[in-house]
Write a structure and sequence with these properties.
Keywords: DNA-binding, Transcription, Transcription regulation. With about 270 residues, the chain is of the alpha+beta class. Helix content is about 40%, strand content about 20%.
Length: about 270
Amino acid sequence: MDLDLRKLRYFVAVAEHQHFGRAAEELYIAQPVLSRQIRAFEQELGCILLVRTTRSVELTAAGKQLYEEAQGILASVASAVRRVHDTDRGVQRLVVAFSPGLHVADAIRAFTSRHPDVETDVVPAPWWQQDAPLRTSRAQVGYLRRQFNETGLHVIPIGHEPRVACMPAAHPLACRQDLTSAELDGQRLLDSPKRRTSSLEEKFELIASGHGIALIPLGVARSYSRPDLVHLPVTDAPEVETCLAVAADRREKLLRDFLQTATATLRQT
């Protein structure tokens, strides 16, 4: 079957608001029209996406899966349209994906000083599927942390980043200066694949609520600092490797130039 992108966007709006009225307002259409479009979409797919109540909307298992897939689909379509427009205007553009807490600005500035005619953009890489922007062609290169699916990618090691233990400020271990892995034995660890959260914000909210401790890269801890959480160095935890990643079949000179500049710049910083 052909996937109707308009109905997919309608579904995403309902999924994000969990309410037909608010979604309809965002989309500038009447609520009955939106309801009919979603029902038609479910009939086309042959599965129920939403459980409707008088006050709210909940995603079914199929709906949750489609919502997750829709992020990549819509981003890929938007990127394709932008590339078409760039080609029509004769614009050269480089898009860099970055993992949470990793800073690629120095590399972009160094590259821009050598290629002032190239437009550069950045997009976030989902922490649970960092390679997604490269797979959907939303980005040409990624500044990422291992581990991720490296199939079909060329990966350039950059450096290493320590892990810290993130826990509630009221936790008995929170008064320590640092920890060892042995001291975390018996603690409930909130890390994938045991419980994958949809965002880092959700993960930190669960930690603050007492659902467990998480080992996270230091850069993530610094980027998501909050007063009800503490981050303690784990002296013997394996460090996380940072790297640049690009599709192995990409050979454009512009991309090679960025990789060379970014590798030198990021390894220094």
